[in-house]
Amino acid sequence: MPLRRPRLLILLVTVLFVALTLRLGLWQLGKAQHKRAQAERMASLDKQAPLPWQGELGPTVWLQSFKVSGQWRPQGQIYLDNRIEQGRAGFHVLAPLELADGRWLLVNRGWLPKTVGQQPEVPLPLGRVELTVRMNNPTQRYLELAKTTDAGPVWQNLDWPRYRKLAGAPVVDVLAFQLDGSDKLSRNWPVPDLGADKNFGYAGQWFLFAALAVVLFVILHWKRRDT
Fold first, then answer.
1. What domain of life does the native source organism fall in (predicted)?
2. CB atoms within 10 A of CB 207
């Protein structure tokens, strides 16, 4: 059962399609492996004792735990509305910690449940404090449910340019998540899902498309010998 001689155009289209889908599959596979390596690094970092933070920034410190110290500045505390935890609505409480060099480190102190008819209010400890925090990429965005003009300390979204204007002081380009504390705030920070499994799935789909193209090409150009 020999193959029919395929038309040149069909052959070229098939070859290009297979090459493209294989390339896309390898690209997604590379992304998945990179994310898996990041997840393994995050898991190893969770087992390490927090280090004193020396002001370093960038991807090498994201999701690492550090010890920081300073004084809270209550005039910079804001509440991000509509944050859900275990099916309940509440606020993320963000406040600046003034460091020894005068810069503000914005800290997500934790989650506060919402009480209908009451404005959120969480007092800040006075004097110098020491915290354990996890550094996060400041480009992380919060969901904004509607285009509204925030009034007072309750905001729908963390708007960095607006916050820097409010601060009136240099703000460190990082968002820290507080890990310890004896107040009433909840700090059940979820483990970031980097989406490696999704990329593995995409890679499998592209490889499947390539295999189907080859099988279809063979079937369409196969003929039986005359008997």
1. Bacteria
2. 17
Q: Which two tokens stand for residue 154?
A: 């309750």
CA distance 111 to 142: 14
pTM attached to this predicted model = 0.68
Distance of CA 182 to the CA centre of its chain: 27
Instruction: Report d(CA 185, CA 35) in Å as an integer.
Output: 31
State percent of the chain over pLDDT 90. 38
Classified as helix, coil or strand, 142 is: coil
**Residue 65, phi-psi category: left (phi > 0), alpha (psi -120 to 50), beta (remainder):** beta
Which residues, 6+ apart, have CB-to-CB distance to 99 below 8 Å? Answer: 68, 69, 70, 105, 172
Distance (Å, whole) CA 213 – CA 17? 8
For residues 32 and 28, what is the distance between their CA atoms, to the nearest angstrom?
Answer: 6
**Residue 199 burial by Cβ neighbours in a 10 Å radius (0-12, 13-18, 19+):** buried
User: CB under 8 Å to 76, separation ≥6 — which residues?
Assistant: 95, 96, 104, 106, 163, 166, 167
SS3 category, 63: coil
pLDDT digits (tens, 9 = 90+) for 45-95: 666 778 888 887 877 777 778 899 999 999 999 999 999 888 899 999 999
